[in-house]
Design brief:
Layout lengths: L1 H23 L32 E8 L4 E10 L2 E9 L4 E3 L1 E4 L38 E3 L4 E8 L17 E5 L16 E9 L1
Antiparallel strand pairs: 1-2, 1-9, 2-3, 3-7, 4-6, 5-8, 8-9
């Protein structure tokens, strides 16, 4: 009889242990992840909320120091900034700084276009801790022959809303003789101005 109760006790212990194991082996409850954190703003991007009219556009005819047409550009308002789509030709092999300047005037040698478009009072350059200008753009590398097409975005800028290019004195797109180093104020040590186009609204 003693052996019977002993074996019964062992059976109950084994059964209880097995039940606990089954209970604890249930799959965990799935909790969906929360939303991803907002990506940090691009250094130097405008803190001002822009309210562009998407699709508003402007054009520029780019001419060299002799007045010869060497390129064109179309600028279009988007909700992310102004999209600049353009092409240049006949400049020969080289790397050139490309910027938006604050005045819509292109009298050779193009100093008439004024300084870089810089309504926020920043210093020049993507690699400058106190930059960049809103008119700063990446360099373009032109081929030895033929046409180079480019497509660039200017965040924090509009054509006619906040930080507008088409303000009272307009703006211009200017091509420089040398490569922009992205850090030297005020123009990235990018050399002289070799081509310029006044930005004209449609």
């Amino acid at each position: 009889m003693t052996n019977f109760f002993t074996n019964l006790g062992r059976a109950l212990i084994i059964a209880t242990t097995s039940f606990a194991a089954i209970t604890c082996s249930q799959p965990p409850v799935y909790t969906p992840p929360g939303p991803s954190p907002t990506a940090p703003a691009r250094p130097g991007a405008s803190p001002v909320t822009t309210t562009p009219v998407a699709g508003t556009s402007a054009t520029a005819t780019i001419r060299d120091l002799a007045g010869v047409r060497v390129g064109t550009a179309t600028l279009t308002d988007t909700y992310s900034g102004v999209l600049v789509v353009g092409s240049v030709t006949g400049l020969g092999l080289g790397s050139h700084g490309l910027h938006i300047h604050a005045v819509g005037k292109c009298d050779a040698p193009f100093t008439s276009a004024g300084p870089h478009f810089n309504p926020l009072g920043k210093q020049h350059g993507f690699e400058n801790a106190n930059g960049p200008h809103l008119g700063d753009m990446p360099n373009i590398d032109t081929p030895a022959a033929g046409t180079l097409r480019f497509e660039l975005l200017l965040p924090g800028v509009t054509l006619k809303a906040n930080n507008p290019l088409l303000d009272a004195d307009g703006a211009a797109i200017v091509l420089h003789s040398a490569r922009d180093d992205y850090k030297t104020d005020p123009s990235g040590d990018s050399g002289s101005r070799i081509a310029c186009g006044v930005i004209v609204g449609k």
